[in-house]
Amino acid sequence: MFKPKYPSPDTYTPATIRPAPVPAEHSAAAPVSAKPQNALGGLVQNSPGTALALAAGGVAGVLALASVAVSLLLAVAVTAVALSVSGVVLLFLVRALRQDFKNH
Length: 104
Prior knowledge:
The protein is mainly alpha-helical. It has 1 helix and no strands. The longest helix is centred in the last third of the chain and has 56 residues, at 48-103.
């Protein structure tokens, strides 16, 4: 009743993959472009403006990451100050309660 029913092994037919025929090569060489490709794969022309835009984008990215890191460090510092102040307040309260119980 609780046994799984597996399909019989003869229902599987493996797919056959045949390589596509390779076209015959011609003896004439393809012309090679004398113009070198830039870092963006030829999508943008090389110009001083392009280099300036890439540099500005890099600087903006670094500034964004730095601001995130500074805000995280600030959050840790604020949490640490809040916990230390809470600890000092609790210490004074416990000492005051001990003094109160000793006097009665």
